[in-house]
Amino acid sequence: MHSNLSTEQIALLAIGIIVMTLLSTAIVVFVIIYQRRIYLINSVKEKELTEAAIRAEEEERMRIAAELHDDVGATLSSVKFYLQMGEKEATPDVFLQSQQLIDESISKVRSLSHRLQPAMLLQLGLQDALQSFFAPFQKNGSIHIEYTSDKLPPLHDNLALTAYRIVQELLNNTLKHATATHAEVYTEVADGMLCLCFSHNGRGITEAQFQQYIYKKEATGLKNIINRLKVVNGTIAFEQEKNWYHIIVRIPL
Fold it and tell me: What is the domain count for the chain?
């Protein structure tokens, strides 16, 4: 037995179909607009991170250029002056002074070379390189750094250098902004990941604050860290425990 739909029911059914169609279309349009908005936001963020990386590189190049010009260049000019004096009057003092200035220039060039590519990192590995890096800070008393580590296996050069540079940046930020007196650094390899924990008792940031700071123009250090981690598919997290702040970095091996 079949029932016939009334004109009113057909009209309601048609309206229902139209409403559902419009609603479905609206949802599709919303999703497209939302995805496009996310894409644009991510594009802007990517651009800011790239610009920050370029600025960081240019600033480092300018610092190195300034040191080469002001320190090494000036020292070598002094060597040239003493050697010119030696042409007129070859005294032991002139040659001794020239030798000392040459040794000083070699030391400065080695220091700059270490900043560009730490020799100890390549020769002895990340663990010994970090131990050596922290030693001067412990001697001058500006901050006490306690470094502990499980025995690390040999790491790929790029991975080890990334971890080393991130530690440098974290310590630099701590010295500049945190006014911390004590810091603890721990490294280990677990579950196929290089895990690095950097903790301090100064003024730090939480995960929520990090998400806000990362896109500010002045947060060059944080952006530099993010760019390094992107290359090796690493992650970073921020935690607070009473008066201590912890920064946990994980990099897949």
Answer: 2
> Considering only CA atoms, which of 166, 179, 173 is closest in space to residue 249?
166
Say whether both 124 and 248 belong to one domain: yes
What CATH number corresponds to the domain at position 203? 3.30.565.10
DSSP bridge pairs for 244 = 241
φ, ψ of residue 195 to 5 degrees: the values are -105, 130
First to last CA, the chain: 71
Query: Model pTM greater than 0.90?
Result: no
Compute CA distances 47 → 34, 42, 103, 162, 178, whole Å: 20, 8, 44, 21, 28
Strand order in the sheet with 182-190: 144-149, 182-190, 193-200, 244-252, 235-241
Kindly tell me if the per-residue pLDDT of 222 is higher than 70: yes
Tokens describing residue 41? 């936001």
Q: Coil, strand or helix: which one is 148?
A: strand
